[in-house]
Write a sequence for this structure.
């Protein structure tokens, strides 16, 4: 049903973090204009036919789109208090190579993800085959779960308070991480799974400990803003390089 | 942002002098007699990096909004509380059956404890449907919804209840009860702002502020002024380099301006967070200080100042 309690991280975002992010991500009108123009430049120009307004064939029809199937970088809206970067969803994904020869190994990954995130993961089937690994197209090879809202904040809470401090030889999320559209990913080794309190409790139920990766989808339009947002949630970044 | 001008009481200067001052349009040189009747003139500052930036005859000043963000979750509204209670009951009722075989090994101590807890819960089952479940409250020994939720989560994550009873500190501290305005450990649910008292009679309470020198930017000036006024015993982090507020005011008639051309100041407020430490009063630049919430600030700070400043302060 609905929420069962106040969410600590969300309240923190609403009271302090969003105010600070508004200040940090503010662009003066000149800089904002330059940024939008830079993004618009990479968009392919409309064809002559699309620009032609007098064409009788285009009357009462939606305007023609530019040619080509290439996805362009989104153009941010004019900035306001509503466009402050915010965490939308988190994807936790793990690819289990051992599932190629024995499908039962998938179960361990699925149960682990379910325990961590409290949501049921869905199985991923391979699109193409790789002969070297004996992988055929359409084989169940991994699992992914998308979490939003309260479960997302509890997951990040667990990460930040318990798991990340206990990781060995981990220097922070790499600064190169980010798809330049405001989404940050990070990977975890297999020993990270055992650090979660949900799994630490009954370690023996999970025969196969796999590594997994976490993707934070934010409403930010640049890497820098996404990193600032996540740093606000106390996720450290490897600044050394 | 058009800040309201401060209108001060006109001091007892001869009428002719006053009219001379007002009627002449854009005066660049004001006769010294108007300014020097109360106090002797101040010495000229050094013409080096310590020279204050002046824009359009207004002194550029950098103010610091030093905040201590809320330390604990706010108290939920009674309706919120009821809603969360109701949703918890729904969750208990509609949750899928618990996979005991997965989580507990047969014959283990944890399984035994879990079975005992189930028996206990069955006894309290009827009270789930009652409006005021005092029984459940006293069993779990909690006042907070968050604590109760923690306990529910504890069951699911099977942590040992007997080991290490977590002691939760009280939400209302001793400084709250004593109303100690100098303490940072007060009003944990709210944001606290630092205001300082300048050594003058009127318009004494304000945010720490100081002039911006020619060769520094706003944040550097803010950091320097904060250290000069409040000491260096505080761990402070400035939020970016952009100001969050602006306030322009004219100097009162009886104020001695260093440079006669300067009409007043324009203050750009920089936001900062304080993590630890305390203000050190040196009695030279500041005489007193207080960490106050947005509402409490109204009692200290003059009204036009508060009106200009309130919109950049957080409601929480």
């Amino acid at each position: 049903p609905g929420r069962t309690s106040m969410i600590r991280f969300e309240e923190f975002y609403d009271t302090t973090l969003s105010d600070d992010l508004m200040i940090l991500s503010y662009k003066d009108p000149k800089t904002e204009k330059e940024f939008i123009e830079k993004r618009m430049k990479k968009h392919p120009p409309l064809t002559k036919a699309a620009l032609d307004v007098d064409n009788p064939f285009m009357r009462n029809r939606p305007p023609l789109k530019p040619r080509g199937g290439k996805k362009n970088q989104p153009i941010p809206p004019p900035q306001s208090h509503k466009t402050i970067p915010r965490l939308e969803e988190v994807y936790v994904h793990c690819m289990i190579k051992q599932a190629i020869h024995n499908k039962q190994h998938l179960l361990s990954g699925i149960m682990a993800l379910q325990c961590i995130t409290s949501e049921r993961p869905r199985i991923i089937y391979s699109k193409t085959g790789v002969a070297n690994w004996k992988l055929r197209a359409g084989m169940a090879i991994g699992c992914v779960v998308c979490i939003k809202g309260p479960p997302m904040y509890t997951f990040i809470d667990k990460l930040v308070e318990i798991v990340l401090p206990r990781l060995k030889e981990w220097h922070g999320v790499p600064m190169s991480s980010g798809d330049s559209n405001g989404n940050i990913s990070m990977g975890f080794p297999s020993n990270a799974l055992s650090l979660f309190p949900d799994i630490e409790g009954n370690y023996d139920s999970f025969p196969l400990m796999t590594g997994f990766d976490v993707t934070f989808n934010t409403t930010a339009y640049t890497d820098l803003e996404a990193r600032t947002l996540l740093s606000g949630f106390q996720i450290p970044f490897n600044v050394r390089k | 942002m058009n800040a309201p001008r401060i209108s001060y009481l006109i001091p007892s200067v001869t009428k002719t002098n006053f009219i001379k001052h007002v009627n002449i349009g854009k005066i660049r040189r004001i006769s010294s007699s108007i300014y020097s009747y109360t106090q002797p003139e101040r010495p000229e500052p050094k013409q080096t990096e310590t020279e204050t930036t002046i824009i359009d005859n207004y002194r550029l000043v950098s103010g610091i909004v030093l905040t201590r963000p809320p330390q604990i979750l706010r108290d939920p509204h009674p309706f919120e509380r009821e809603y969360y209670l109701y949703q918890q009951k729904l969750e208990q009722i509609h949750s899928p059956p618990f996979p005991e075989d997965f989580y507990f090994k047969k014959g283990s101590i944890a399984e035994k404890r879990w079975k005992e807890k189930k028996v206990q819960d069955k006894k309290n089952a009827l009270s789930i449907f009652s409006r005021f479940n005092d029984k459940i409250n006293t069993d779990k020994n909690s006042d907070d919804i968050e604590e109760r939720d923690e306990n529910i989560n504890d069951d699911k994550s099977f942590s040992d209840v007997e080991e290490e009873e977590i002691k939760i500190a009280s939400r209302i501290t001793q400084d709250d009860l004593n109303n100690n305005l100098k303490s940072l450990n007060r009003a944990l649910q709210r944001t606290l702002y630092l205001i300082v008292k300048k050594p003058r009679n009127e318009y004494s309470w304000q945010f720490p502020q100081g002039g911006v020198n020619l060769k520094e930017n706003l944040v550097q000036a803010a950091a320097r002024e904060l250290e000069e006024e409040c000491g260096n015993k505080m761990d402070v982090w400035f939020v970016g380099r952009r100001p969050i507020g602006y306030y322009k005011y004219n100097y009162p008639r009886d104020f001695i301006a260093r440079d006669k051309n300067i009409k007043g100041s324009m203050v750009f407020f920089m936001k900062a967070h304080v993590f630890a430490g305390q203000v050190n009063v040196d009695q030279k630049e500041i005489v007193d200080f207080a960490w106050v919430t947005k509402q409490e600030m109204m009692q200290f700070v003059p009204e036009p100042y508060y009106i200009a400043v309130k919109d950049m302060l957080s409601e929480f």
About this structure: The longest helix of chain B spans residues 78-94. The interface with chain A takes residues 69-70, 73-74, 76, 80, 83-84, 87-88, 90-91, 94, 102-105, 145-146, 149, 157-159, 191, 239-240, 242, 244, 271, 273, 314, 316 of chain B (CB under 8 Å). Residues 54-72+176-312 of chain B form a domain with the Nucleoside Triphosphate Pyrophosphohydrolase fold (CATH 3.90.79.10).
